UniProtKB/TrEMBL annotation, chain A:
The keyword Transferase does not apply. It comes from the Bacteria. Keywords: Signal. This is Tripartite tricarboxylate transporter substrate binding protein. Belongs to the UPF0065 (bug) family. The keyword Signal applies. Residues 1-20 form the signal peptide. Gene3D superfamilies: Bordetella uptake gene, domain 1 (3.40.190.150), Periplasmic binding protein-like II (3.40.190.10).
Automatic annotation (TrEMBL), chain B:
InterPro entries: DUF112_TM. This is Tripartite tricarboxylate transporter permease. Keywords: Membrane, Transmembrane, Transmembrane helix. It comes from Shinella lacus. Residues 20-438 form the DUF112 domain. The chain crosses the membrane at residues 20-49, 61-82, 109-135, 147-163, 169-185, 259-280, 316-335, 355-379, 391-411, 417-444, 465-488. The keyword ATP-binding does not apply.
Length: 314, 505
């Protein structure tokens, strides 16, 4: 009997490494938002697909994710079980907050999902398409008020890029920042502002019900299932994608990074992940390794340029 | 099928024994997690949502509704017993509720909170079922200037309702407003008064300030009194149940709280904290026992708790009819709906009537379960207060600290908790009310953002603030709230008024 216990203990101990790692994922935002949902989806898939035994999600909210990022980078050096969710909003926040910790201080693993920006106007608005909006913007930039998410975030950057492409001084745009897409949506529906800009998912239900008119989407080409021209078709060379990523701690060995990469790849290829993307309306923009790092550097450089143009970064 | 048939059908499904069991499990889980200090309803729902995924849609909706209501009620339990509000909306509950608890009336305080939540939840859920479309229309007519006018009204009535000295009340309010400007400015993304400290970039967390001011300040105050003061904490005085007088004093605040909470909750930028503040100042106006306010008036628990719960049901109005999540909790609920392929929005009532009415019926059932579960537990909860004072306060310190670290794991946050605890201690010693500090921190940023949005939209035209009928009416009421007491005082009724003004502590 004693031997049996011993044997089962050893067997148990040997079985454990089958679960590569017990990850803990930092969602650098409060519960409910996109990063929190990404972290919890990742948690669900890692556990359901038996890639990891137990996964913990910790919310460290604040300042566009820079608080969580700073804490993550300083406390987890060399810890291969720690992951953090981040995204395009973090790139902007690092710049506007002059955060001492940047994405260079962590190990970017992969871009996971993305969402395109949608530009909408209330159904009663005289503005019918992107050209009308650009004409109004050129005539008097201050008279066109845009409702969107936090200042310096993806929505704000997109408006800055649109103004710049239209030949309007980006510092003159009248951008009204809201805590999130929801509050901005109420302002648009209530005819308080000229136009609204946010992730397409925020507006989808209203667009389908006909209370909002979708005039453009910020993708490079038309997106299947979304009945709207791109901003490019409207005559402005602007493409914006609000992507989300997962990163690992600094100071990891090449093998450790490879193991995390393999786990994330398993997640992305699983059916349950695909199902989650579908229900949440996220685009699969999986990009890993050096290709992702190169893309990240490009995004940081272009974001810095436009934030300087808008006047948010000196 | 008409509204009523749909609702009946929904109730019939939700009342099946298995579904009732799910509701009970949900309420129990929600209450158990919500009772942990520092964990508000949003986090409770986020933590427990995955539990519901394993069930069929009807069962999971029902359990979810239970978790939601349970989490909210659990939060008010700790506010009342331990003075550690887990979210900004329970700050007001802690104000009078904890005073009641320490006067041996914790039982009635918990009971009026539970029954008030039930009454408010019931009326507001029915309101959600029958008048949601009209409420939405009204709520959407609120733009930045109307919200600003609403905030001004809240400021005026709330600051008048606290403390016996206007000057001390205003001083405390401005301390709160000063703290409120710390952090990243939402309109420009620039950091203000953060002195290069990253932890200050997001401003000061309301719950940290509230827990520090209420719980830590209180503990220090009690500790420095040593043995000089007689044992004031009485666990139970009289019945743990509500007396006839308690009922008589509670039912009107429940109803008033409901009618304040539901429409304000339905406003995309309203929220439960404003509703609970307005309810508190309303109750103080209407109460025949104004002298008890600040010392544990049951109206001050009944009204705000009802307003809080009604506002939570109100939140579902924009969520279900517009697909608009207006609070963190609502955003998590939206994520929950998407699991069942349910896309809240204008088409939801047309495309998925069974699920919508199922949810509304679930809310009714969960609300009922909450009452069934919690009323018998009240006797148990108040036993907490029979713990000897040193242990009780040590426990409060421990839970306040745990709650703060749990919500935001950082050493700096802990430092802020202690610093604000010292501030609360000092304010108590020098006779300043502490609630206005918290009110300033909650309402200040909302008022500022709405004013600046309104001015940005009008491109700097100040007169446009008064050009909307709703805003004009709200401003007029605010002016009246200031002027009428002055006139009363001038006509020699000042004595009555100052007699009414209660000592905060």
């Amino acid at each position: 009997m004693k031997h049996f216990f011993l044997a089962s203990l050893i067997a148990g101990a040997m079985a454990l490494p089958a679960f590569a790692a017990d990850y803990s994922i930092i969602a650098p935002a409060g519960p409910g938002g996109g990063w929190d949902q990404t972290a919890r989806s990742l948690q669900t898939v890692l556990q359901d697909e038996k890639i990891s035994g137990s996964v913990q999600v910790i919310n460290v909210p604040g300042a566009g994710g820079t608080i969580g990022l700073a804490q993550f980078a300083s406390q987890n050096s060399g810890n291969a079980n720690a992951l953090i969710i981040g995204g395009y909003v973090m790139v902007g926040a690092i710049l506007t907050n002059q955060s001492p910790v940047t994405l260079k201080d962590v190990t970017p693993i992969a871009r996971l999902t993305g969402e395109y920006e949608a530009i909408v106007v209330p159904a009663a608005s005289p503005i019918q398409n992107m050209q009308d909006l650009v004409t109004a913007l050129k005539a008097d930039p201050g008279a066109v008020s845009w409702a969107g998410g936090s200042a310096g975030g993806t929505d704000h950057i997109a408006v800055g890029l649109i103004a710049k492409a239209a030949g309007v001084d980006p510092t003159k745009i009248n951008y009204i920042a809201y805590a999130g897409g929801g509050e901005a949506l109420a302002a648009i529906l209530g005819n308080q502002v000229t136009a609204g800009i946010s992730g397409y998912g925020e507006f989808e239900a209203q667009v389908k019900a006909g209370t909002l008119r979708l005039i453009a989407i910020s993708s490079a080409e038309r997106v299947e299932g979304i009945d709207a021209p791109t901003i490019k078709e409207g005559g402005l060379d602007v493409v914006v994608e609000n992507w989300r990523m997962v990163a690992a701690a600094p100071g990891l060995s090449a093998e450790q990074v490879a193991a995390i990469n393999a786990d994330i790849e398993k997640v992305v290829n699983s059916d349950s992940w695909k199902e989650i993307l579908k229900t949440k309306g996220w685009q699969n923009t999986y990009l890993a390794g050096d290709a992702f790092k190169a893309q990240l550097d490009k995004d940081v450089a272009s974001t810095e340029a436009i934030l300087k143009d808008i006047g948010l970064v000196k | 099928m008409g509204t009523f048939e749909f609702l009946l059908q929904g109730v019939a499904i939700a009342a099946q024994p298995m579904n009732l069991l799910y509701a009970l499990i949900g309420v129990t889980l929600g209450t158990a997690v919500g009772v942990l200090p520092g964990i508000g309803p949003a986090l409770t729902v986020a933590l427990l949502l995955p539990v519901t995924y394993k069930l069929d849609p009807a069962g999971s909706l029902i359990m979810f509704a239970g978790i939601y209501y349970g989490g909210m009620y659990g939060g008010s339990t700790t506010s009342i017993l331990l003075n550690t509000p887990g979210e900004s909306a329970s700050v007001v509950t802690a104000l009078e509720g904890n005073k009641m608890a320490r006067a041996g009336r914790g039982g009635p305080a918990l009971a009026t909170a539970a029954i008030g939540s039930f009454v408010a939840g019931l009326i507001a859920t029915l309101g959600l079922a029958f008048i949601a479309p009209f409420v939405v229309k009204f709520a959407l007519s609120f733009g930045p200037r109307e919200y600003f006018a609403l905030m001004v009204l809240a400021f005026v009535t709330v600051s008048a309702a606290f403390g016996d000295s206007t000057l001390r009340g205003l001083t405390a309010l401005f301390v709160g407003l000063g703290l409120a400007v710390i952090g990243i400015d939402q309109q420009t993304g620039q950091a203000r008064l953060s002195f290069g400290i990253p932890d200050l970039l997001d401003g000061i967390e309301v719950t940290t300030l509230a827990v520090a001011m209420f719980a830590i300040g209180e503990t220090l105050y009690v500790a420095c009194q040593g043995d000089r003061i007689p044992e004031k904490v009485e666990a139970v005085k009289g019945s743990v149940w509500m007396s006839k007088e308690d009922w008589a004093r509670s039912w009107k605040p429940w109803l008033r709280g409901t009618f304040i909470g539901f429409p304000i909750g339905a406003m995309p930028a309203g929220g439960a904290s404003i509703a609970s503040f307005l309810s508190y100042s309303t109750e103080k106006q209407f109460s025949k026992h104004k002298d008890e306010f600040g010392k544990g008036a049951i109206e001050g628990v009944a009204g705000p708790e009802a307003a809080n719960n009604a506002s939570a049901a109100g939140t579902l109005v924009p969520l279900l009819s517009l697909g608009l999540p207006t609070t963190a909790t609502a955003a998590i609920m939206l994520a929950g709906f998407q699991q069942y392929g349910l896309q809240p929005g204008p088409l939801l009532f047309a495309t998925n009537p069974q699920l919508v009415w199922g949810l509304i019926a679930s809310l009714l059932i969960a609300n009922f379960m909450l009452l069934v579960l919690n009323l018998p537990l009240i006797g148990l909860w108040v036993k907490l207060l029979t713990i000897p004072k040193p242990w009780l306060y040590a426990g409060i310190l421990l839970f306040a600290t745990l709650g703060t670290i749990g919500a935001n794991p950082s050493v700096f946050e802990l430092g802020m908790l202690l610093t604000f605890g010292l501030l609360g201690f000092a304010m108590r010693i020098f006779g300043y009310p502490i609630a206005p500090v918290v009110v300033g921190l909650i309402l200040g940023p909302m008022a500022e953002q709405q004013l600046r949005r309104a001015l940005a939209i009008s491109q700097g035209d100040v007169t446009s603030l008064f050009m909307s009928p709703i805003a004009a009416v709200l401003f007029a009421v605010a002016v009246l709230a200031v002027v009428v007491p002055l006139i009363l005082r001038a006509r020699g009724k000042g004595e009555v008024l100052s007699q009414f003004a209660a000592n905060e502590d």
